[in-house]
Amino acid sequence: MKETRSHLSVLAIVIALVGVAFWVGYSTAVHLGLDLKGGLEIVLQAHPTQGQKLTTQDLDNSVKIIRDRVDKLGVSEPEIRLQGSDQIAIELPGISNPDNAVSVVGSTAQLKFYDLSKDMIGTKAFRSRFNALDDAKDRTDKAVAKGKKPEQWYLFDEGHKQIAGPTPTKQELYDDQPGKEAPKGSIALAVPPGEFLVHGAPDKIPVQVETTGKFDRNTGVFMFLKDDCDQGKGKAKTCAALSGSEIKQASAESNNGQWVTSILFTGKGGDAFQKVTKQIAREGALQGKKKIK
After folding, report:
1. 166 preceded by a cis bond (ω within 30 of 0)
2. 182 vs 155, 185, 219, CA distance in Å?
3. Bridge pairing between strands 208-209 and 120-126
4. Which sign, positive or negative, has the C-alpha torsion 29, 35, 40, 46?
5. Fewest CB within a 10 Å sphere: which of 101, 103, 128, 234?
6. Cβ of 221: how many Cβ atoms within 10 Å?
7. What is the mean predicted confidence (pLDDT) over 42-69?
C-alpha cells in the first residue's frame, strides 16, 4: 500500500510538471531561427590593414559595431558570433532583402570632418532620430518636389520606435514587413537630400538640445549637417572640410592611461588639415578663446 501511494505521488508530480511545461510553452513566444522562420546568414571575413596584425580585440570591437548596425535593421533576436580566427557570422531571422542587410552590416564607415558652427542646420539637436527626421520633414518634401531623391529612409511604429532602416529607397523599408506593406500606424521618414544626420554625446555638442521627448544616453542626440557636394551643379556647395580618403594611415596606442591617436595624411590631406586648423585658430584668436589644444 505504501509503495502504491508512493507511485501515485510520483505520478501526480509528473502530471503537474507536464502541465506546467505545457502552460509555459503555450504562453511563451517561441523564437524561430533561420530553419523555421527563414532569413539570412552573412559571413564576414576580416582582413587586417597592411602592416597591422589582426587581434581578438579587433574582432570583438567589430562584433560590437555590427551589433549596433543590426539593431538599425529592426531584427528580432539576431545571432552574431565569432567563427574561426578571422570570421564573423551574422544570422538575421525574418530578413529577406540581402542587398539591404549587406549594405548596413558590411559597409565601411566613412570618416568626414565638418565645421559644426557653419555646417549645422538649425540651432538645436534632437533627443531621438524620430524627432530629428520629423522636424526635417518639410525640407525633405521640398527637396522631393524639386526632383531630388532622399538616400536614407527609416520606418517607425506608432510609438516612434524604429523598426526598419536605413534603406536607400522608401519601398525597401517594407521588403521585410508582412505582405511587404507598411505596418498599421507606421511612419516613414527620410533624411533630406544634401544633408547628413549625425549623433553624439550631448555634453560634447555646444548647441541647444530640445527639452521634450525621451533621451537615450547610449545613442546621444541627433542633428543635421549640410553636405550637398553630390547634389548636382548650380550654386556653391557645402562639402566636408576633410575626409577619411585623405588619411594615409592611422593608429592608436595607450600612453600613461590615455589614448593617443596618430594620423598620417596624404599630401592633399595634409594641406586640407593645415587649412582647417589655421582657420579654427584664427577664429579662436578673434573670439579671445583657444579653440585648438
Report:
1. yes
2. 9, 8, 26
3. parallel
4. positive
5. 234
6. 25
7. 78
For 200, list phi and psi in degrees, rounded to 5. -170, 175
Model confidence pTM above 0.85? no
CB 247 within 8 A of CB 254: no
Task: Read off the amino acid at residue 17.
Answer: L
Which residue type sits at 218? N
| Domains annotated on the chain, with CATH | 34-106 (3.30.70.3400), 118-237 (no CATH), 243-287 (no CATH)
Three cell numbers at 231? 547634389
**Three cell numbers at 135?**
522636424
Spatial contact of 263 and 242, defined as CB atoms under 8 Å apart? no
CA–CA distance from 178 to each of 96, 181, 182 (Å)? 11, 6, 8
For residue 24, the cross-strand partners are: none
Contact 237, 193 (CB under 8 A): no
